[in-house]
Structures are given as C-alpha cells and as structure tokens.
Task: inverse folding
C-alpha cells in the first residue's frame, strides 16, 4: 500500500501517518488501525474533492459528449460510473486514478459471484431477489457495449476484450456497491457536467441491485452537521426514485475503513473543497478504525459487502446473531392466501390496488422486536372484510390495525407460509450446520442469513401465541379495555415499506 499512500499524498491528500496505519485484519481484510491513542474529533486524513472518482470528476462524459452520453442512457442508473471507472483503469499509467484503482479488490464474496448451487442456499431470504445479475447484464449489453462501439478512438477494439468485458463490469459494479460514498454537490457549486445530472427516471438498474446508493456515511459539517443518506436506507426506498446518481463517488483512503455492528468511531465530513475523516470517539492504539454501513441486516451485508455480522444478542439469550436482521413479507403472499380461501371474490385485487394507490406498503418488515406490523394487520382486515373495504373507500383511509381471531388465523398462516419458503423451516438443522467445520465460506454465510430470518419468524409466531392468549383473556372477561391493549400493544408497531419488484 506504500504506492497508494504516496499517490494519495502526491495528489494533495493529507494522512496523519503517526495516528493511522493500513493493515490486514483476519476475517475482514484490509483496514485502518490506530497506531497510537487517537482523541475524539481528530482528523485522520483529508482529501480534495477532485480526488474523488465520479461521473463529475472523470473526463470521460465530456469527452464522449453530453448528447451522446444521454443518447445511450449513460446518465441513468449506475452504468455511467461503471464505464468511467473501467475507462480510467484502461488508461494505464496515463490515468489519474490508476494507482488507486490498482489498490481495489478484484475478488468478492458477494452472491453476485456465487454459483447457482450456492445461491440455492439463500432460498427464501431477502437476498435472492435483490442480487440483480440479470438486470446488470442487460445494462451491459444494451447500454455500455453499444456506446463504446461508437467511439473506437476512446475504446480501441484491441482493448475491449481486456478492459470492457462483462466480468470486469461485474467487478467494477461490485466495487461501487461495496465502497462508494454519497458526496453531494456543495450548495451553490456549479460543475461542468451539470447537464448530465438525471432529470427523471434515474432509478434504473446498472449493477447488483436497483439501488447501489452510498456505501458509507458522509456528513456535511457545513450544514448543521446533518448526515447524508447511508447505504442502510437505500434498498427499495422511494427516495431512490429521485436520487441523483451523479452524487455517488469513489473516495480514496476513506473506502479502506471497514465496518462492524455498533462499532463506528470515525465519520467522513465534507466541506466545499475537501473531505475529512474525523474520529467520533476516542480510539485506543491497536484498535481498528471503523466507518459505518448503517448497521444493516445480514441479508444486506452479504449482498453488498460479502460478509455478515455476529454479535451476542440479548433476544437470543446470548447466542450470536445480528440485532438488525429482518424478514420481509410481501403483500402478494397475503393476497395469495386470501384468494385461495375465497377464489370467487373478484374484489381482492381491486382492494390491493386501492391500498397501493393510497400509499400503502407492499412489503412488511418483521424484526427482532416482539411486535407485528400494524400496517400488515390493517391490510389483512381490508382483504378479509367486505365491511372494512366499504368503510375504507368511503373514508379514504385503511382500516385500523385491530387484532381479532380472524386476523390471527390468517397471520399464523402467513408466518408459516413465509417460513416454508426456506430450504428447511427447521431452526435446529441450521444450528447444527453452523457447528460443522466443513462448511465453505459462502454456505456458512447463507446459513447465518437464513437462520437469523427464521429465528425472527419463530419469534413472531410466539408473539402471535401471546396475542391469542391475551385475546382469549379479554374475551372471557368481556373487557373492551383489554382488547385495546392487544391491538395497540404487540400489534401496534412494526415496520413496513414500499418495495415493488
């Protein structure tokens, strides 16, 4: 890494070499280490904005031509940044970022590179539908290849099979997915390529997922110290529909920092001309310097970065897991169960359409908290009850999340059906597999992801039993007050989101 550090410093980067070193950590790869005790609010390195690599700082878009860039839709999604990075790397020693690019990984443990057999181990998890290999390869063939063939002066034919292959496209996309930052334009800043900023529809796929987003936190120290979007919030978010993908940048040196659950001790702040990595708490000599990916569930950590987090979890009585793990329950699963029960009712799809038009969610999140999503219960009531459906249309709002026996029966079937989508619903099988030393890394990661999700579903079923018992107690006493406790307590929270696939 000596060449990289020398390159960084040659291009006006400033690194406090007395405080931070670069080393390899067993199990987590290369990262940053504190060489001595570092106090809070200490700047460990600074770099100029022009050293970041994006569609704004690369000369390729302007050299290619703005009109042509837009013609081939290189301004939409992530394909433009991928092409910029491939082109910069193809410049060899003439390229500004060649030393930096040479320091980036060329192999990844993310599911994008898994075999079909390995991917089967992820069946049922939140990973499979979000890998996006098909979408990525479509962008490569329909956008990138036609574009580069029009400019042999920029992309010589004898270099295409070396620098612009589908494999390199995947590698470059994975570098962006795992290491990029969200670096917004400074307020009032005017850039040469402002015409390249997407106007609409900039949420198209380019690699690995419909939304690569930013890999790590960046804070704007000039505007009340407010943070910018982090990777933890990018997946399937409505915000991505308006996200300016030209804000995504590779940030040399900053992307060396690893992340671990609840361990962030440094954060990237940006100013008008420079970005600064600043410690957010004291760091002892020998400790690793961590940035943050946003404390994500293992499904997202594996899909984006190729690793999982395991820490002691109070909810698991000290067993290892990820407290941020979640299970996604899609609305189409609910609709299928309802339609199977009453195939002659033609209003089910009409009710779903109304729900979505009114801003309802089509993916419901169940997490480690003993709470079932109120929105999920509301949708169930809308689908099950003709009376609730008529009231909802009349009032223009969905039903209240009232828990009763009819809702309980369908909820149980939903949870059991969701559990059946894994290769095996049995938790003990996966727990025994984890104890085996013969597991490959990929299979071990797959088992950890699905075991975390299955534990959540098992916990949700236990929560449902408690709710059923409370409902029975309330019914036997005849107390409306107790009924309100049931509907407003264990079933009164939870998370949901819109994630149309």
Result:
């Amino acid at each position: 890494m000596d060449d990289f550090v020398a390159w960084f410093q040659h291009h006006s980067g400033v690194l406090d070499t007395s405080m931070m070193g670069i080393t390899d950590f067993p199990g987590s790869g290369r990262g940053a280490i504190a060489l001595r005790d570092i106090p809070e609010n200490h700047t460990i390195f600074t770099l100029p904005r022009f050293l970041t690599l994006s569609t704004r700082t690369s000369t390729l878009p302007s050299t290619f031509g703005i009109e042509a860039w837009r013609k081939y839709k290189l301004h939409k999604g992530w394909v433009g940044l991928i092409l910029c990075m491939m082109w910069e790397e193809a410049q060899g020693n003439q390229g500004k970022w060649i030393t930096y690019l040479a320091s980036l990984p060329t192999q990844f443990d993310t599911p994008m590179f898994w075999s079909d057999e390995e991917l089967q181990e992820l069946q049922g998890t939140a990973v499979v539908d979000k890998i996006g290999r098909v979408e990525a390869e479509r962008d490569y063939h329909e956008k990138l290849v036609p574009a580069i063939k029009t400019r042999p002066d920029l992309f010589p034919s004898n270099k295409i099979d070396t620098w612009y292959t589908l494999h390199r496209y995947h590698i470059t996309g994975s570098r962006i997915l795992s290491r990029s930052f969200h670096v917004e334009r400074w307020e009032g800043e005017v850039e040469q390529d402002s015409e390249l900023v997407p106007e609409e529809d900039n949420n198209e796929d380019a690699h690995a997922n419909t939304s690569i987003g930013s890999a790590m936190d960046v804070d704007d120290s000039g505007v009340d110290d407010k943070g910018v979007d982090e990777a933890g919030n990018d997946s399937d978010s409505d915000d991505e529909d308006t996200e300016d993908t030209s804000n995504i940048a590779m940030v040399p040196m900053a992307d060396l920092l690893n992340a671990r659950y609840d361990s962030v001790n440094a954060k990237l702040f940006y100013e008008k001309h420079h970005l600064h990595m600043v410690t957010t708490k004291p760091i002892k000599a020998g400790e690793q310097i961590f940035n943050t990916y946003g404390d994500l569930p293992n499904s997202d950590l594996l899909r984006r970065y190729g690793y999982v987090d395991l820490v002691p979890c109070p909810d698991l009585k000290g067993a290892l897991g990820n407290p941020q793990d979640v299970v996604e329950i899609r609305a189409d699963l609910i609709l299928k169960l309802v339609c199977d029960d009453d195939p002659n009712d033609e209003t089910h799809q009409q009710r779903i359409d109304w729900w979505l038009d009114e801003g309802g969610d089509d993916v419901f999140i169940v997490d480690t908290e003993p709470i079932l999503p109120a929105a999920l219960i509301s949708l169930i009531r809308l689908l099950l009850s003709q009376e609730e459906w008529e009231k909802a249309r009349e009032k223009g709002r969905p039903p209240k999340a009232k828990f009763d026996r009819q809702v309980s029966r369908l909820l149980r079937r939903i949870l059991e059906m969701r559990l059946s989508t894994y290769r095996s619903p049995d938790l003990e099988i996966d727990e025994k597999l984890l104890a085996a030393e013969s597991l490959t890394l990929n299979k071990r990661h797959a088992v950890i992801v699905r075991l975390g999700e299955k534990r959540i579903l098992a916990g949700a079923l236990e929560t449902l039993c408690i709710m059923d018992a409370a409902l029975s107690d309330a019914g036997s006493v005849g107390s409306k007050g107790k009924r309100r406790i049931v509907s407003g307590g264990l079933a009164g929270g939870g998370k949901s989101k819109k994630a149309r696939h």
Summary: Residues 190-218, 220-242, 477-489 have pLDDT under 50 and may be disordered.
